[in-house]
Design a protein that fits this description.
single chain, 395 residues, alpha+beta, Aminopeptidase, Alpha-Beta Plaits, 2 domains, 9-stranded antiparallel β-sheet, 5-stranded mixed β-sheet, 8 helices, 20 strands, Cytosol non-specific dipeptidase, hydrolase, protease, metalloprotease, metallodipeptidase activity
């Protein structure tokens, strides 16, 4: 029996525990979807799936409530798969391990998936509870929300009978949400040229780790550190001074997650090693001072490593560093209509470098179309200045 069974209302938490036990990261929701379809059929509910995999469950009205307006409860099936650096976990195979910590339900070493697992559990618990009096009821569970809202975009017209929809993918109890931020995935792809690392250079792995990370929608305004931006800031300040050779740079795992770790493989001449170590120590203290209240576990590590790869030529190094360093991150604008609400934001989520190119993956969110268009235009201009290919997808 799950530890969550001691919580009330027990049926809801039992369903949530079951959801946690079935892997369901974005693009891997099918096992959970099949379980829910079987669950609904076992309880005698009408259940359908559409061409993109969305699930629709219908339950007739309680006797005497047939003339009430139909309502649809909506949630999404997938979760954001993030784990601590020291956690071994395959999100496509391993269950989430929830536990109770005081007044909070958490997961051991990974994201919990309460976004949107607790929403799913709530909707299914309402369906299952014969004591809940309701009109005609529908539950809609959509696919791949976290990675692009594929299920929502693929939804068929006239599939739903209800004209009132309650979305359960919210953050704060007791608050009503007035709208939804649209999202744009923006990618800059920059070609790189390389050359051999000079003789007499020593190679190091520079790692920024220990950041909290977080959801790029719900926590973008909190002021958490972005590992990609913090690490490139060091390179921007010291690459030319050190005649630093950049061999590799990678950071983040998902566009919609604030990156908690990034690393760069670098090389400097032997007579610059002590200077490099001093600059790294100084920069770590600067970051700890700047982020003292937000990122108490921040660490900047410099480790000697073996290397057989070529380094970027100076032009490629400088172009990449300047492009990433100049890319905005965080809140772009707050709403004038709803005080305290972020209107437009940008998360520099993933940087992936290979031998001959580097991709910078960002997620733009805005409550208004013009806000998204503005940030797309800004990133496109930066990319073109750097000679990068750019692509924007989403709505």
């Amino acid at each position: 029996m799950s530890e969550l069974s001691q919580l009330s209302p027990q049926p809801l938490w039992d369903i949530f525990a079951k959801i946690c036990s079935i892997p369901h990261p974005s693009y891997h929701e099918e096992q959970l979807a099949e379980y829910i379809v079987g669950w609904a059929k076992e309880k005698g509910f009408h259940v359908e799936r559409d061409q993109v995999g969305n699930i629709l469950i219908r339950k007739p009205a309680t006797a005497g409530m047939e003339n009430r307006k139909p309502v649809v409860l909506q949630a999404h099936l997938d979760m954001v798969p993030q784990k601590n650096n020291d956690t071994v976990h395959d999100f496509t195979k391993d269950p989430i391990q929830p536990y109770i910590d005081g007044e909070w339900v958490k997961a051991r070493g990974t994201t919990l998936g309460a976004d949107n697992g607790i929403g799913m559990a709530s909707a299914l618990a309402v369906l299952a509870d014969e004591n809940v009096v309701h009109g005609p009821l529908e539950v809609l569970l959509t696919m791949t929300e976290e990675a692009g809202m594929d299920g929502a975009f693929g939804l068929q017209g006239n599939w739903l009978q209800a004209d009132i929809l309650i979305n359960t993918d919210s953050e704060e109890e007791g608050e009503i949400y007035m709208g939804c931020a649209g999202g744009i995935d923006f990618t800059s792809n920059l070609h790189l040229d390389r050359e051999a690392v000079p003789a007499g250079f020593e190679t190091f792995k520079l790692t920024l780790k220990g950041l909290k990370g977080g959801h790029s929608g719900g926590e973008i305004h909190v002021g958490l550190g972005n590992a990609n931006k913090l690490l490139v800031r060091f390179l921007a300040g010291h690459a030319e001074e050190l005649d630093l050779r950049l061999i590799d740079f990678n950071g983040g795992t998902l566009r919609n997650a604030i990156p908690r770790e990034a690393f760069a493989t670098i090389a400097v001449a032997a007579d610059k090693v002590d200077v490099l170590k001093s600059l790294v120590n100084t920069y770590q203290e600067i970051l700890k001072n700047e982020l003292a209240e937000k990122e108490k576990n921040l660490a900047l590590l410099l480790d000697s490593v073996a290397n057989d790869k070529a380094a970027l030529i100076a032009k490629s190094r400088d172009t990449f560093i300047r492009l990433l360093n100049a890319t905005p991150n965080g809140v772009i604008r707050n709403s004038d209509v709803a005080k305290g609400v972020v209107e437009t934001s940008l998360n520099v989520g993933v940087v992936t470098m290979t031998d001959n190119n580097v991709e910078i993956h960002c997620l733009i969110r805005s409550l208004i179309d013009s806000g998204k268009d503005y940030v797309v235009s800004m990133l496109d201009s930066l990319g073109k200045l750097a000679g990068a290919k750019t692509e924007a997808k989403g709505a």
